[in-house]
Amino acid sequence: MTDAFLVPPTSNAALAARDLNVLWHPCTQMHDHETLPMVPVVRGEGVWLVDADGRRYLDAVSSWWTNLFGHSHPRIAHAVKAQLDTLEHVIFAGFTHEPAIELAEELVRITPPGLERVFLADNGSAAIEVALKMSFHYWLNRGHGEKTRFIALTGSYHGETLGALSVSDVALYRKTYAPLLLTPELAPSPDAYEGEPGETAADTARRRLLDMRVLLERHAHETCAVIVEPLVQCAGGMRMYDATYLTGLRALCNEFDVHLIADEIAVGFGRTGTMFACEQAGISPDFMCLSKGLTGGFLPLSAVVTTQDVYQAFYAEYASGKAFLHSHSYTGNPLACRAAVATLSLFRDEPVLERNRQLAAHMATRIAPLRDHPNVADVRQTGMIAAVELVADKRTRRPFAAEERRGLRVYRHGLENGALLRPLGNIVYFMPPYVITEAEIDFMVETAVAGIDVAVR
């Protein structure tokens, strides 16, 4: 009997082989899978993923930061199942439906004051595209067609479609496509890790606001908007900064008459300790981009929430040519909207943020000893997001060479020991679902610590 007949057709090995014969995965050098095992997942249970061979993995990264309340959450699942029996999809131009209306009403209710109009799209990058185009088109409609540029932060990441990538500053993603992209002005990030000796995070934020002021003095006349990820620059390495920066940035945008776009795609819905990160600065942006956790990780959906002033700039007779002619085939998909309504109801009905603060405090206690690790330069945390910076030399903060792929060693160790840890380069981070228990946090951190020890040998 040949080996082929010994492999069950629904085993990890069989499913992985079928996958590698036809699929091309995101953010992946597929050649790696000649030695790196593909993991076929057959079901999810809370914070756990279960593969075809029955092995379990704690989802420490919330499946790319989308999952808020655990896999297969019964309340969200029930809402989607009920919606399936009535309406799966309908064109969203000239038609509407209750799930989208309910969702928009709730987003207007819970987002910062002044955000009163909701434009729906399919995913995070699409939301960024909408906000960029809408900001430019606003100024055009108001008679300021000279405003065609954007300001972003160094180390920023806003997605991988061309517009979103244009306002991103992570070379790994941007460099190859640079000839195709817009060129933004880049303001130095207020990243506290890059602060000067003796500076507090707030000091760094105030100093970087001076840099932003200089840019606006030079470029405000041609600038549509400043775009930032509030409090945490996630894909850029979980870089964290003080809320003072957002407060000052809102004031600068008002002073120089440019829009402020808040990319809360990864940090919204309780990740940073408040419902939205902007709340910690007491500000309202002109555009807030939302996705990922919006549907609790069930279905793709995004939203751009904006002001009545922006909406009114497009509201005119058709012949004026001022309409915002941007669409997606699955805009306002009822299934996704119903999942989002159910997800947001959990925040309304349960003490989610209070529990998150308790979990975040426990995570802080468990990761604190890593500050003394000889290859850890920084341990940082904002709410339910924590990160550990691995370096070759702690004193000088000299990083490991990228080609050594130390983070990949942590990833492998995690899989071998029942945890999905997916470092960003040499930055090990934790962003688990909110239903994680303290015991599961202990397991997650212990597995990561052991993986770090393996990685830095």
Automatic annotation (TrEMBL):
It comes from the Bacteria. It catalyses: (8S)-8-amino-7-oxononanoate + S-adenosyl-L-methionine = S-adenosyl-4-methylsulfanyl-2-oxobutanoate + (7R,8S)-7,8-diammoniononanoate. Pyridoxal 5'-phosphate binds at G124, S125, D263, H328, S329. It is found in: Cytoplasm. Its EC number is 2.6.1.62. Signal peptide: none annotated. InterPro entries: Aminotrans_3 (IPR005814), Aminotrans_3_PPA_site (IPR049704), BioA (IPR005815), PyrdxlP-dep_Trfase (IPR015424), PyrdxlP-dep_Trfase_major (IPR015421), PyrdxlP-dep_Trfase_small (IPR015422). The modification N6-(pyridoxal phosphate)lysine is found at K292. Its main location: cytoplasm. GO terms for cellular component: cytoplasm. Keywords: Aminotransferase, Biotin biosynthesis, Cytoplasm, Pyridoxal phosphate, S-adenosyl-L-methionine, Transferase. The keyword S-adenosyl-L-methionine applies. SUPFAM superfamilies: PLP-dependent transferases. Substrate binds at W64, Y157, K292, S327, R422. Pathway: Cofactor biosynthesis; biotin biosynthesis; 7,8-diaminononanoate from 8-amino-7-oxononanoate (SAM route): step 1/1. One of its GO terms (biological process) is biotin biosynthetic process. Its cofactor is pyridoxal 5'-phosphate. It holds the Pfam family Aminotran_3. Catalyzes the transfer of the alpha-amino group from S-adenosyl-L-methionine (SAM) to 7-keto-8-aminopelargonic acid (KAPA) to form 7,8-diaminopelargonic acid (DAPA). It is the only aminotransferase known to utilize SAM as an amino donor. Homodimer. Belongs to the class-III pyridoxal-phosphate-dependent aminotransferase family. BioA subfamily. This is Adenosylmethionine-8-amino-7-oxononanoate aminotransferase.
